[in-house]
Automatic annotation (TrEMBL):
Residues 43-95 form the PAC domain. This is PAC domain-containing protein. NCBIfam families: sensory_box. InterPro entries: PAC, PAS, PAS-assoc_C, PAS-like_dom_sf, PAS_4. It comes from Comamonas thiooxydans.
């Protein structure tokens, strides 16, 4: 407020610093006082105020009610700490987190983030749908509770090296419910390195079954084409050999054609 610790701060200075002339601020302060009077607020709470110039400020308020010996409410004691900058940073982080969640929820791959103790801190919509649980339920759960049993068996030996800073990419083959083979490409990316320490791992599981089937079809088609070309090449080689043998047999022979008068025409 522009005053040192020993300066006397007047009521007008307090009102100006907090923007108490602004109607929205007056309402917020009155609501806080009424809540303290009824013991409805916790010992500390966040108060958002609007200054007279229209700017906003966030205050961390410690409030307590001053009461008479009979228990009647006399006054509200408030200890205020300006946390405007901290609130701004938190709002930016929250906005960034919401944007990131919006992006990851649009992908069909299952994505999750686990801390160094393999406690779930983030999941996207695809993983929630696969597990059949809400996001709020999966957050804070263990690694084993977020994936299928056969997936955990394949992934866990690869996750442990990632916690030491080594990226992992591998393929999981599992049997789907319809009895067909399902192919999953799994990527485990460490958050941090060996020098500064790994804070956690980001895991992404993508179903590549259709892509794998397409690749197999193309591979089989190429193999069949190569086999057909090989068979045709072998057949042409045999035909060439037969013609070569016939040519060799005719080298010592004399072949000519006679016309109707008995003369050699060719």
């Amino acid at each position: 407020m522009g005053a040192s610790q020993r300066d006397t701060v007047t009521e007008s200075q307090i009102r100006a610093a907090l923007g108490l002339e602004h109607p929205a601020t007056q309402d917020a302060v009155l609501l806080a006082i009424e809540s303290v009077q009824q013991d409805l607020l916790p010992p500390s709470f966040e108060l958002k105020l609007t200054r007279s110039d229209g700017s906003h400020m966030s205050l961390l308020a410690g409030a307590s009610a001053v009461r008479s010996p009979a228990g009647d409410f006399l006054a509200c004691a408030l200890a205020l700490t300006d946390i405007t900058e901290r609130a701004r940073v938190m709002a930016e982080l929250l906005d960034s987190s919401e944007r990131m969640r919006s992006i990851t929820d649009r992908t069909t791959a299952r994505q999750a983030y686990f801390d160094a103790d393999l406690t779930c801190l983030f999941v996207n919509r695809a993983l929630c749908a696969h597990v059949g649980a809400r996001r709020e339920i999966l957050l804070g759960r263990s690694f084993e509770e977020c994936f299928d049993t056969d997936e955990v068996r394949e992934m866990l030996p690869r996750v442990m090296p990632a916690l030491s800073g080594d990226k992992q990419t591998f393929l999981i083959e599992k049997q789907a419910q319809d009895g067909t083979t399902q192919y999953l490409e799994c990527r485990v990316l460490p958050d941090g390195g060996a020098a500064e320490g790994v804070r956690g791992v980001f895991i992404e599981i993508e179903d590549i079954t259709e892509r794998r089937r397409t690749e197999d079809l193309v591979l089989h088609a190429n193999m069949e084409l190569e086999a057909r070309v090989a068979r045709r090449t072998a057949e042409l080689s045999r035909t060439k050999r037969r013609y070569s043998l016939m040519a060799e047999a005719l080298q010592d022979s004399c072949i000519f054609f006679l016309d109707s008068t008995g003369r050699i025409s060719e």
